[in-house]
Every structure is written in structure tokens, then in C-alpha cells.
Design a protein that fits this description.
Blueprint: E1 7-12, H1 17-21, H2 28-31, H3 40-59, E2 67-71, H4 75-87, E3 97-99, H5 120-129, H6 142-159, E4 164-169, H7 171-187, H8 195-202, H9 205-208, E5 221-223
Parallel strand pairs: 1-4, 2-3, 2-4
Antiparallel strand pairs: 1-5
């Protein structure tokens, strides 16, 4: 487990209705709407991801009682978590599943909301140039997302120990999460300090601008720590 007290897997939500229609849904207000949950293909992807996660748990000798599913409150991630939980014979409303607002989708800003997916490339180009720059006023920069993901990790680490944590979230947040965990893992030494200060130490443009390297497909599961 190294520098973390738990083992972590990440899962990008299955293909959602916004993915199918090619629309950006990144605000909490819209993201929670039922009409933006998983498309039927996404339900299948979530089912397969759940089966793969179960297989990895078994291969690692991890009992189901040690599993915690931490998910974003958006309808597409909640739907994904629900499908995965059912594969593991867990209840989404039970003690092993918990929603965390801080792992929600990155909010790109009002002028991007409900616009075409084609606009993502504009945002990612900006991220490469300056990950501390917001896509627009009201939107979140990569660095903004790092701050809240760090809060979520600190909270999860304080609540659970020795667990297999599945984080069910979105494309950008999971790319960013993997970026910071990789960088923190590479700089850990005996006196590296607590998790928040370790993340702060690698919160620099050269690291954060690389988040697209950790892209996940919809419904893709990946072990990270």
C-alpha cells in the first residue's frame, strides 16, 4: 500500500446519456438529474467493470467486507456504483458505499455547460498550457480539482484503513487523481509529511498539465495504488 492506508481502484462511469448525445453535463445541478444517468450500453459496461473488480478482489485475496465504494453524486456515477454494488452483492444504501461530493465531475463553466463535447479539446489545450487557469470564470482549473480530490482522499484515508476502495467518478477528476497519486508515489520518502502536504509539493504545472495521459474510457476500471 505504500504511502496510502488503503488500496485504490478507479472506475470511470459507464457510457452515459450525455456521452451518447455528445453534451457536456458538468454542473452539480444538471449532473444529478435522472435524465443524465447511464445509457443501456453504460449499464452493461458497469456490470462488466463490477465483474472485473470482483475478479481482482478474489485474485488479491480481498474479502468483500473490506470493500468500500466511494462515488460522485452525479446520476451517471451513482447509477454506475449501484450496478457495481449489485455485482458485489452490496447495497448502495449500506455502510460500504458512500457518496463524496468532492469526487464530482469537474465543472467546466457556464458557457460550456450543455454544449457539445467538441469543446473539451479547448479546455484540455488550456490545461496543458496552464493547469492553474480556469477554463472560464466560474469553471474549475485542474488545480481546483486537485484541491477537492485531496480533501476527499484525506477524508477516505481517515475513515477507512486496510480497505479496497473503489472510486467511481468522471473522466477529468480520475485523470487528475491518477496524476497526483503517481507523482506523490514517486516523491515519497520517510519524511514526506501527511498526504495533503505531499500533494501540495507536487501541485506544479509540469505535473498537473499531464493529466490527459491517464485518460480512461467509459466503464474502465484501473488499479492505481
Amino acid at each position: 500500500m505504500g504511502f496510502m492506508g488503503n488500496r485504490y481502484w478507479v472506475l470511470r462511469h459507464g457510457k452515459s446519456i450525455p456521452n451518447e448525445t455528445g453534451v457536456i453535463v458538468s454542473s452539480m445541478e444538471n449532473g444529478k438529474l435522472e435524465k443524465y444517468k447511464l445509457a443501456s450500453e453504460g449499464v452493461n459496461q458497469a456490470q462488466l467493470a463490477g465483474e472485473l473488480f470482483l475478479k481482482e478482489l478474489q485474485e488479491n485475496g480481498i474479502p468483500l467486507e473490506n470493500v468500500r465504494i466511494c462515488y460522485s453524486p452525479f446520476s451517471r456515477t451513482t447509477h454506475t456504483a449501484e450496478v457495481v454494488a449489485s455485482v458485489l452483492n452490496l447495497s448502495l444504501g449500506g455502510p460500504q458505499c458512500k457518496v463524496y461530493e468532492d469526487i464530482r465531475e469537474r465543472y467546466f463553466g457556464p458557457s460550456f455547460e450543455l454544449q457539445s463535447h467538441d469543446k473539451y479539446s479547448e479546455i484540455w489545450d488550456l490545461d496543458e498550457k496552464d493547469p492553474f487557469m480556469k477554463p472560464e470564470e466560474g469553471g474549475e482549473s485542474v488545480a481546483d480539482v486537485v484541491s477537492r480530490l485531496t480533501s476527499a482522499l484525506v477524508q477516505i484515508e481517515s475513515e477507512f484503513q486496510g480497505c479496497a476502495i473503489l472510486i467511481v467518478s468522471h473522466g477529468d477528476p480520475l485523470q487528475i487523481l491518477q496524476t497526483i497519486l503517481k507523482a506523490v508515489g514517486e516523491q515519497v520518502g520517510p519524511d514526506s509529511g501527511d498526504l495533503a502536504s505531499r500533494v501540495e509539493a507536487i501541485k506544479v504545472p509540469t505535473v498537473l498539465s499531464q493529466h490527459r495521459k491517464h485518460a480512461l474510457l467509459t466503464g474502465q476500471l484501473r488499479a492505481v495504488v
